[in-house]
Amino acid sequence: LSVAGFVLPASDAVARNLPEDQGARGLARGEAQSLVPIVVIRRDVEAALKAVGDVTRVSSSLEAHVPATEREFKRLFDEFSEAVSYKQRFLDSNAFLVYYTKGYDGPSRPSLEADVNALETKQFGARNEAWIAIDDARAEVAYLRSAEAGGDTRELEGMLTAALAALDEYLGLAPAAVLDEARRAASSSY
């Protein structure tokens, strides 16, 4: 491309609306066995919240079964969550056309955007909110352990409460029978 005598190198545009692949295999997608680690994480976050006055116990609870990295944390959730649908991939890769045609797919046909997977969106949103809150709580624990901290744990309590709310939102999206089975398995194996 040449503009006013200058040559501009061509490059591909890069955008990402779809969640990154975290390495989940999805072999037990939607099954209780893949929900068990999330139930255990919720239990550990709840234990941390109950121990909020004792930063060492909070740290131990968050280190027990909660993955230390974002990728590993999200992979656990992605093992259970709905996979990104073909339709969502199509919409993402054709976002320009979908936007400017307002999802038009022909006469007497519904908009392409009419039936986007709401469960998938809610699962990924709750997963991401849980990670952010847990990561923030870990940073707050590190700060509270430092010499400059004053010992005020109100922010930590808020972060753990937010993590618990996000985990409850995620678990609330699972079928009740699957969640009950996962809770039984978590209590007997962890």
What order do the helices and strands come in, and which of them pair?
Blueprint (H helix, E strand, L loop, with lengths): L1 E2 L2 E2 L24 H19 L4 H10 L5 H11 L5 H8 L1 H6 L17 H28 L8 H19 L3 H14 L1
Antiparallel strand pairs: 1-2
Description:
This protein is mostly helical. Helix content is 61%, strand content 2%. The protein has a two-stranded antiparallel sheet. A hairpin with a 2-residue loop joins strand 1 (2-3) and strand 2. The longest helix has 28 residues, at 118-145. The termini are far apart. The model has no long low-confidence stretch (mean pLDDT 82).
| Main sheet attributes: strand count, strand direction, barrel closure | 2 strands, antiparallel
Q: Total helix count?
A: 8
| Radius of gyration, in angstroms, nearest whole number | 21 Å
Oligomeric grouping of the chains = single chain
- Secondary structure class reads mainly alpha
Shape: globular
- Approximately how much beta-strand content do the residues carry? under 5%
Question: How far is the N terminus from the C terminus?
Answer: 61 Å
Number of DSSP-assigned strands? 2
The arrangement of helices and strands along the chain is EEHHHHHHHH
User: Roughly how much helix do the residues carry, as a percent range?
Assistant: 55-70%
- As residue ranges, the low-confidence spans are none
Spatial ordering of strands, largest sheet: 1-2
Average residue pLDDT: 82
